[in-house]
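Researcher: Please translate sequence to C-alpha cells.
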Amino acid sequence: MKYDVIIIGAGPAGIFTALELIRKNAGKKILMIEKGKPVDQRHCPKAETGKCMNCKPNCMITTGFSGAGAFSDGKLSLSCEVGGELPALIGEEFAQELIDYTDRIYLEFGADEHVEGIYEGEEINEIRRRAIRTGLRLVNCPIRHLGTEKAQKLYLNIQNDLADKGVEMLFGTECENIILESVHSGQP
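Model: Translation complete:
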C-alpha cells in the first residue's frame, strides 16, 4: 500500500501532525506507526500489583498512543512565558497563538474548561513585589488540568477521530530503519 505521509510514533508530535494534515485538508493518505498499543488497550499492571512489572516488550505507561500523556497528570501551561526558548525563536506573539490553538484542540476533544493559575489580589501582589526585590519575576501562568483520570478518555477521543477521518494506525510495530529514496527526473 502507498501512503503520502508515514508518521513514526503516536506521541504528541505524531498526533498533532496527523490532526494538522487532516485539518488543512491535505487529502493525504496517512499511516501512523506506533510500537505500543492503542490508548484504550493500555493498562498499567502497577495499579493492581502496587509495583512496576517492567512490561515487555514496551512499558504501558510510556509507550502507545499519546505516549506518557495518557497516564500523566496532564497539566498544560497556557502561557508562552514558561517552559522554554520557543518564544525567543519564533516570537512571543506567535508562540502564544500556537499555545492557544493547541489548547482549543484539547478543549474540542473533551478537556475540562476550568483554568487554574490566574491569581489576583493584594496577597499575590505582595509576593510579586518580594520576588522583584530578589531579582525574580512572578509569572501568571494559566494551567489547564487534564487530570490523570480524564487524559485517557481525551486521547481516546483523538485516536477515534483520526481513525474516523481515515488515518490508518499500525500498532505493535517498531520502526527500526528508514530507507529514503530520492527521485529526480525519473531517476531513482
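Researcher: Any highlights?
Model: The longest strand covers residues 30-34.
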